[in-house]
Write a structure and sequence with these properties.
By secondary structure, the protein is α/β, with parallel strands linked by helices. The protein contains 21 helices and 27 strands. An eight-stranded parallel barrel has the order 1-2-5-13-14-15-16-19. The longest helix has 26 residues. Bound molecules: 3-O-alpha-D-glucopyranosyl-D-fructose.
C-alpha cells in the first residue's frame, strides 16, 4: 500500500544526502569532469528534498527505500554522462534562464508528423511555415513505436526507445530536435506514462512470468475488486471500452503475471492499454530511465499524458489522487537533476479545482510540472461562444487559484482530443445555470442539434447510462466555418480569431493546433480506415492541406484571412512583456454579460487589457472598468482602435481588442 504526504511537508531527511554526497562527488568528477561534476552536485543539493520527499511518501514504507533513492540518483548521474555536448550547452543556458518557457516570445504548434509532413525528416521542410507563425515550440503528436493495428492515435506505445517506423528512426528524431533547436524551437513529445500497449516488452515479460516485470501491472482474479473500484471510477470511453478492467487469459492475479488462470487487468482507457502499477518502484525506475533516454535525444518538453490516472484508491474516482502528484514531483526532480533543460507539461484535463495542483500549487508549493494545459479556459471559451455570454467564464476563471511562480499555462483553443465540459456545478449554479442542463445544451449546440447552432461538430463518447457526452470537431467547424453563406463565413472567422485572441494573450504558452491557422474543417476520411473509423476524434485530426496553405497570403481567401490573423497575434504577442507568464493578471469585472475582460502586468511592463465580445451585436462597457490601468492604446484588434463614446467603450459583435500601456 502507498501512503502519501500530507501538507505541510515532513522534515527533510538529510542523512541519505550526507551519506551519498561524498561518494557521488568522486564518481561524478571521474565520469563527468570537474565542471560538470560541480554542476551536478549543485543540482543534487538543489533537488534532493524534492526527490526524497515524494519518494518517501510513495515507497518510504519499504526497507529498501534508501537504496532506491540512491539507485535513482545514480541513474541520473549516468544519464548526465551520456548527455550529448550540445544538450549540456543547452543545460547551461537554461540554468541561467530557467524560466525560458515563460517568455512572451513562446508560441506552440501541435501536429501529427504524418499528417503535417509525412515523416520526421520532412518536418524540416515545414520550418518556414512555423517561423512565419512565430513558433518556438513544436509538439509532435505520439512518435514512439506504437502497437500494430489500432493504437489510439499512438497512445498505445509498444517501445519507448524506438520511433514509429512509418515516421522515421530515433536518429531522425534526434536530428530533428537539433534542427529545431538551432532555429530556436523546442521539441515536445508525448510521454504515455499511465499505460503501455499490451505488446510492450514489459507487458509481454509480465505475462510470461519474467520476475523482472513482476508487479508491473494491476490484476485481479475475479470481479470482486474490479466491481468495487468501478463503483466510483471514471469511465473514459464508455461507448468503446466500457469499464476499467479487461479479462486477460493467461494472466496471473494480484500483479503476478503468469499463472495460466487469467485475470482482470486494469485498463483505464482501451483494452490494449494496460495501466502500469506505480506502487512498484521498478515501474517508477523504468519510466524515469525512459524519460532520461528521450531527454538525451533532445526532447525538451514532455507532455505527461493522462497523469491524473496514475494513482488508484478504492472509493475514489481514481483520478487526481495524492500519489499522482508525488509521482510527477519525483520524476520531475530526478529529470532536472540529469537534464536541467527539460520541462514537464501536465496533461490533466480535470475540473478547475484540481488543475493548479499539477503546477505544484499545493498547500505549499512543491515543484511539479512547469506547464499545464489550461483546460478550464478552453472549456469556458467554447461555452461562452455558444451562449454568447461570458458570465460563467468570468466566474470560473475569476476564482481559479493563481499559479505558482516559475510555472505557466499552456493555453489552447483546440487539440486532438474531444472537448469534455469540465464545468464545475458550483460555478454553473452561481450564474444561474443548471449544470447538467448546461452541459446538455453545449453538446446539442456543438453537435449541431440545437436549432440556432452555427457549429458542425459531433458527439463523442456518449454514455447512455449517465447521458454524458463530449464533442469532436475542428475549431473552424465548431466556429461555423464551412458553408457557402459569405455572411456566416465572416462570423465564423471572427469567432475563430476571437478565441485565439484570448489564448494568445492570457499569459502562458499559446498552442496552435495544426490546421487551425488555415481554418481546416472536419476531415471524414478516417471513416475509410477500419483502424480509425470507430473514433470520431479523427475528424479533427486532418492532413495538412497543401492547397489551402498555398493560399495563405491571399487576403481574399478564408485561409489568407485566418493565417494573417494568426501571424499578427503571434507577432504582437512577442512585443508585449505584459504577456510574460511570470506577470500577474486576472479577470476584470465589466458591466456587460457578453464581455470577457482580463488584465496582465509584468514587473517590467505596464498594464495589458484584453477584451472580447461573445455577442453578435455591438455592446458597450463602462470605461471606468479600466481606471487605474494607465493610458491604454489599442495594439491589435478586430475592428480598429477601441471606440469610446459617452464614457462607454464599444465593442463590435464577436470583436476583440488588445490594449497595452506603451
Ligand atoms: C489522453 O487523453 C490523450 O490525449 C488521448 O488522446 C488518449 O486517448 C488518452 O490519453 C489515453 O492515452 O481521457 O479523452 O485528464 O482527459 O489523459 C481523452 C486526462 C482522455 C485525460 C486524458 C485522456
Amino acid at each position: 500500500m502507498i501512503t502519501s504526504r500530507l501538507d505541510p511537508d515532513p522534515p527533510i531527511e538529510g542523512h541519505l544526502l550526507d551519506r551519498l554526497r561524498p561518494a557521488l562527488a568522486v564518481e561524478a568528477e571521474q565520469c563527468l569532469g570537474r565542471a560538470e561534476a560541480v554542476a551536478f552536485l549543485a543540482r543534487l543539493d538543489l533537488w534532493f528534498a524534492d526527490i526524497h520527499g515524494p519518494l518517501a511518501a510513495l515507497y518510504g514504507c519499504r526497507r529498501d527505500a534508501d537504496a532506491l533513492g540512491e539507485q535513482l540518483v545514480r541513474l541520473a548521474r549516468a544519464a548526465v554522462g551520456e548527455r550529448p555536448v550540445e544538450l549540456r550547452d543547452l543545460d547551461r543556458r537554461r540554468e541561467i534562464d530557467p524560466h525560458w518557457f515563460q517568455h512572451q516570445r513562446m508560441v506552440g504548434y501541435v501536429a501529427y508528423t504524418d499528417r503535417f509532413a509525412g515523416t520526421l525528416d520532412a518536418i524540416t521542410g515545414r520550418l518556414d511555415h512555423l517561423d512565419e507563425l512565430g513558433v518556438t515550440y513544436l509538439h509532435l503528436m505520439p512518435v514512439l513505436a506504437p502497437r500494430e493495428g489500432e493504437n489510439d492515435g499512438g497512445y498505445a506505445v509498444a517501445d519507448y526507445r524506438a520511433v514509429d517506423p512509418r515516421l522515421g528512426t530515433m536518429d531522425d528524431l534526434e536530428d530533428l530536435a537539433g534542427a529545431l533547436r538551432r532555429r530556436g524551437m523546442s521539441l515536445c513529445i508525448d510521454l504515455v506514462l499511465n499505460h503501455t500497449a499490451r505488446e510492450h516488452t514489459w507487458a509481454r515479460g509480465w505475462l510470461a512470468g519474467d520476475p523482472e516485470y513482476a508487479g508491473f501491472y494491476l490484476s485481479f482474479p475475479d470481479r470482486t475488486m474490479p466491481d468495487a473500484y468501478e463503483a466510483t471510477v471514471v469511465d473514459v470511453f464508455p461507448d468503446r471500452a466500457p469499464g476499467s478492467f479487461t479479462w486477460v487469459p493467461g494472466a496471473g492475479a494480484n500483479g503476478a503475471g503468469a499463472n495460466g488462470a487469467g485475470a482482470w487487468v486494469w485498463t483505464t482507457f482501451l483494452e490494449y492499454q494496460w495501466d502500469l502499477d506505480y506502487t512498484n518502484p521498478r515501474v517508477f525506475t523504468a519510466m524515469l530511465d525512459t524519460i532520461l533516454f528521450l531527454a538525451n535525444r533532445g526532447v525538451e518538453i514532455f507532455r505527461m499524458d493522462a497523469v491524473p490516472f496514475m494513482g488508484k484508491r478504492m472509493g475514489t474516482s481514481c483520478t487526481n489522487q495524492p500519489e499522482v502528484h508525488d509521482l510527477a514531483q519525483a520524476l520531475h526532480a530526478l529529470t532536472k537533476l540529469a537534464a536541467p533543460a527539460t520541462v514537464f507539461k501536465a496533461e490533466a484535463i480535470v475540473g478547475p479545482d484540481d488543475l493548479v495542483a499539477y503546477l505544484g500549487g499545493h498547500a505549499r508549493y512543491r515543484p511539479e510540472c512547469e506547464l499545464a494545459y489550461h483546460n478550464q479556459l478552453m472549456v469556458m471559451l467554447w461555452s461562452s461562444l455558444a451562449t454568447k455570454d461570458a458570465r460563467l467564464a468570468v466566474r470560473s476563471l475569476g476564482r481559479l487559484r493563481p499559479i505558482p511562480e516559475g510555472t505557466s499555462w499552456a493555453t489552447y483553443v483546440r487539440c486532438h482530443d474531444d472537448i469534455g465540459w469540465a464545468v464545475s456545478d458550483q460555478d454553473a449554479w452561481a450564474v444561474g445555470y443548471d449544470p447538467g442542463a448546461h452541459r446538455d445544451f453545449l453538446n446539442a449546440f456543438y453537435s449541431g442539434r440545437f436549432p440556432a447552432s452555427f457549429a458542425r461538430g459531433a458527439l463523442f463518447g456518449a454514455n447512455p447510462e449517465t447521458g454524458d457526452a463530449r464533442i469532436s470537431g475542428s475549431a473552424a467547424a465548431l466556429c461555423g466555418i464551412g458553408g457557402d453563406d459569405p455572411h456566416a463565413l465572416d462570423w465564423g472567422i471572427r469567432r475563430l480569431v476571437l478565441l485565439h485572441a484570448v489564448t494568445y494573450a492570457w499569459g502562458g504558452v499559446p498552442l496552435l493546433y495544426m490546421g487551425d491557422e488555415l481554418a481546416q474543417g472536419n476531415d471524414v476520411s478516417y471513416l475509410g480506415d477500419p483502424a480509425l473509423a470507430g473514433d470520431n476524434r479523427w475528424m479533427h485530426r486532418p492532413y495538412f492541406d497543401e492547397a489551402a496553405a498555398a493560399r495563405r497570403y491571399d487576403p481574399a481567401t478564408v485561409e489568407g484571412r485566418v493565417f494573417g490573423w494568426m501571424r499578427a497575434l503571434g507577432a504582437a504577442r512577442r512585443e508585449l512583456p505584459a504577456l510574460h507568464a511570470a506577470g500577474e493578471g486576472g479577470v476584470l469585472e465589466v458591466d456587460s454579460p457578453h464581455v470577457l475582460a482580463w488584465r496582465r502586468r509584468h514587473p517590467r511592463s505596464g498594464w495589458f487589457v484584453g477584451l472580447v465580445n461573445f455577442a453578435e451585436h455591438t455592446v458597450s462597457i463602462d470605461a471606468h472598468a479600466l481606471d487605474g490601468l494607465g493610458e491604454l492604446p489599442t495594439v491589435l484588434s478586430s475592428d480598429g482602435p477601441l471606440q469610446a463614446r459617452g464614457g462607454r467603450l464599444h465593442l463590435p459583435g464577436l470583436g476583440f481588442v488588445w490594449l497595452a500601456e506603451p
